[in-house]
Amino acid sequence: MGTPAPAELISPRSPRVAAARRLARRNFRTKERRFIAEGPQAVREAVEHRGAAGATLIELFATVEAAERYSGIIDAALAAGARVHYASDEVLAEVSQTVTPQGLVGVCHFLDSPFEDILKAEPKLVAVLAHVRDPGNAGTVLRCADAAGADAVVLTDASVDLYNPKSVRASVGSLFHLPVAVGVPVEQAVAGLRAAGVRILAADGAGTDDLDAELDAGTMGGPSAWVFGNEAWGLPEETRALADAVVRVPIHGKAESLNLATAAAVCLYASARAQRAPGGCRSVTPS
Fold first, then answer.
1. DSSP designation for 204
2. CA 140 → CA 93, 129, 215, 274, 286, distances in Å?
3. Helix crossing, 71-79 with 39-48: angle to 10°?
4. Which residue among 91, 182, 203, 247 is least crowded, i.e. fewest CB within 10 A of its CB?
């Protein structure tokens, strides 16, 4: 028996289109516990992802051209039980959050994980976004954490909405790759991670500890969580005071500073490298 075909071209006045369009607003996303994923990369990841309640992708809007170009994604979405609609450019413009939609827009279930589940998994490398307000930066740091092999990302209650369309796009699919906890007070995040044996490192340009010195001293081979702050003013003093060390990325040239995402990539990769070196917490090859 073959894969069922998508429905006929959906009307711009369809209730399905209106429901997807409302997800541009945070209050509707929170109420429905659904968000929008756009473009072939994000939709492909959404199709493959399964949460505790089952398939993550609920619904897919695709132009006829995109459906032909990405037929494998369409077939996989249908096979996974998602409702697939052919859509005109007008409909895509209604449900998309970008100026130039890429022909595929998916409606997905929320996929964040309980913070307690992250702790139970005994994480070795975690990125904590405290006071990060820019959605593009949040998504990019999530992507960096994924690339560095982090075990989880935590967004505190003072940070941007994980499901902001800009955050989702900036993660380039990494949102679907690793556990993410949201709305965790920074004090709870630090206390929980420390109780799980994770060293807390606050990244700050004015930090008293130098990243190179930490690496040279061999102190970064164990489980660690990096706390990243606001793009403009960094971490408040009360948050820095929670950390085991406040670490700065050394500036060897004449640049005034690094932006948040670049600094996060440097810090996370430094920990990943140290953990995989002889004696590091990831150095033992599984049998």
1. -
2. 25, 11, 24, 22, 30
3. 30
4. 182
Name 105's Cβ contacts closer than 8 Å, sequence gap at least 6. 20, 36, 37, 38, 43, 60, 61, 62, 87, 92, 95, 96
Burial of 37 (0-12, 13-18, 19+ CB in 10 A): buried
Q: Which candidate, 214, 199, 178, 195, places its Cα nearest to that of 281?
A: 199
CB distance 89 to 63 below 8 Å: yes
Q: What is the 3-state secondary structure (H, E, C) of 111-151?
A: CCCCHHHHHHCCCCEEEEECCCCCHHHHHHHHHHHHHCCCC
pLDDT tens-digit map of 109-138: 999 999 999 999 999 999 999 989 999 999
Instruction: Please state, in angstroms and rounded to a whole number, the distance separating the CA atoms of residues 255 and 108.
Output: 41
Cβ–Cβ under 8 Å, residues 18 and 59: no
DSSP state of 103: S
User: pTM, whole model, 2 decimals?
Assistant: 0.91
In this predicted model, what pLDDT tens digit does every residue of 17-67 receive, in sequence order?
A: 999 999 999 999 999 999 999 999 999 999 999 887 789 999 999 999 999
Sign of the Cα torsion 41, 42, 47, 50 reads positive
Contacts of 40 (CB under 8 A, 6+ apart): 66, 70, 73, 102, 103, 104
Which is nearest to 271 in space by CA: 160, 150, 156? Answer: 150
